Here is the input.
Amino acid sequence: MMNSPSNPTPKARRPIDRWRWTGRLFLVLMLLYTAVPMIWMLLTSIKSGFAALQFPPQWWPDEPTLASYQKLLDPTNSVGRDFLRFFWNSLFVSTVTTILAVIVAVPAAYAFSRFDFPGRKFLFFAVLLRNMFPAVIFLVPLFILMRLLGLVNTHGSLILTYLTFGLPLAIWLLKGFYDNIPIQLEQAARIDGATRFQAFILVVMPLSVPGIIATAIYSFIGAWNEYIFAYTFINRNDQLTLPVGIQRFFSENTTDFPGLMAASFMMSLPVVVLFLLLQRYFVKALTEGAVKH
Amino acid sequence: MAHVVLTDLVKTYGTFKAVNNVSLRVEDGEFVALVGPSGCGKTTTLNLVAGLVPLTSGDITIGDRIVNDIDPKDRDIAMVFQNYALYPQKSVYKNLAFPLQMRKLPRDEIDLKVKEAARVLDMTHLLERKPRELSGGQQQRVALGRALVRDPAVFLMDEPLSNLDAKLRVQMRSEIKRFHQDLKATIIYVTHDQLEAVTMADKMAVMNGGFLQQYDSPATVFANPVNMFVASFIGSPAMSLVPLEVSTNNGDTALSGTEGWSMALSPLNARKVQNSTSKKVVLGARHSTIKLHKHVIAGGIPAKVYTVEPTGDVTFVQALLSGATVNISVPPTVSVAPDETVWLEFDQQRIHLFDGETEMALSAA
Ligand SMILES: Nc1ncnc2c1ncn2[C@@H]1O[C@H](COP(=O)(O)OP(=O)(O)OP(=O)(O)O)[C@@H](O)[C@H]1O
Ligand SMILES: [Mg+2]
Here is the structure.
């Protein structure tokens, strides 16, 4: 059987390899699809304004320059002042959204996972219901609501809105995480002398750190990139966040493409850095929280 | 150490009664095994004693204190969980130290106690490892160690050996028994392995469907099961239970099977049978008390062999009798074949008789 001539090993392996190579090719194409625009963005940002408009386009600029970045990061000129202000606004809105999302989602998810209270199933369904509708249909109702609350043109309007979008998924993601932490760990802690709260803080919390980090990244990215609501709720220049700010800022005069690309690149930087630093947890959260049971 | 008293303990989940009026008393220093089939409420009972789930009604006394409304941490108990429940992010040392830290012991005293427990359980070399870097048996020792470092009034153990392989289980069984003898600890030990219960416990509590069936020494439970459930649950292979009819044979009370044979009864057994609520009586007999004859004998009951299982030391024969299966053990030298007719001889002193309606053991009184 082992060296049966009718079934030599190389032949048997070939189909597997073919699948593997198809898979690799597919991944390379995917990578190009996502990376080329980013590379183009980066390359354009170090061109001069003239080189950026050349046709046929130049891949690598003849005279690479960091002038666009210098301009954006220099608070003494009006462009830099605005850019830094937008950047700060975005950072503020996203960070506050993230912190609030975690503070609310952690106990909510824990309660959904552990406690059997009346209406638990219904409430959990209600939480997820929000995500079954496209976000835009809430645009007008939320705008009216924000006007009633006197929150138009404030960062509060954005933070509240982003929370309504981010929380359902955050709660769902974290609940999956808590469901996977055996209840016996908490019980053991309570017998070992911990109160319910101590058992949560000392035993459950450390185990759910990956889930919390994933939730935080998710909330942050969602808030950082959001455009439609920011565009609708905020009119005052000094309150704008980056996505809207960049767009308004650069279409006022003839468009400065290298400047636009430099700003876009710097806007994507925090998300990329955050993701690279914490992707370990993010992957763990997605595989452990949602899949393993 | 302390005694534990459960009085009319009830736990309901919705309309389902997981624990049903359970009352029992565990004496100071006693080792009690809680046994029963899966889902009979063993873990729930243990969790009630620990205070991990709220009780529906009844009283739990530990020592001289009613602990119904007392937090688990204040009940002075230690527990070993079925899945060990070691804190995965903590080293073995920190797992053992945790209960002492929570009780605010000074650091050097904690260190002393942890090292002592590690020495006793022979895992000093494992102290810096994380639980996932340990084998099942080592994890089990850590779980035991975490209960040992304190010295609580009562130990609760929920199937602590169920995840181990057969060899390790036997080894840990004697270690736990030794530990009980040395410490004179009060232990409530859940298991669905009746061999564990019989070998380790002073008393065993047999549960079924949330009800406590029998609470006595393993020897008594084995010798005098109070009902058919206990009779069939305790002992391996299970006691054979054969449904029969009460009949009269020359004026004497006898039992007859569906095949038409009848079995004479001793005067004591005859009086038991007369106490049955109906004509239906179930005959119970353990495999070792039944004699198998290859040829017809006086008083022998004919039965057809169904399967033959040689195990080396003994051969187990299953025979069909009155619609039930009867287990008989014979020496390996006896050769029987399936479908062969054999004659069974029951020992009147050692058979059990149960009421066919109520399933309770019949008594002569
Ligand atoms: N939280 C709960 N909600 C509803 N029913 C439950 C709950 N916990 C346990 N039960 C039910 O109570 C019964 C007893 O459960 P328990 O865990 O005490 O069984 P057990 O005797 O320990 O079984 P095993 O040997 O399988 O561990 C089971 O039928 C179980 O389904
Ligand atoms: Mg159990």
In short: Residues B 13, 16, 18, 36, 38-44, 192 surround adenosine-5'-triphosphate (ligand 1) (CB under 6 Å). Residues 19 and 25 of chain A are 10 Å apart (CA to CA). The mean pLDDT of chain A is 85. The radius of gyration of chain A is 25 Å.
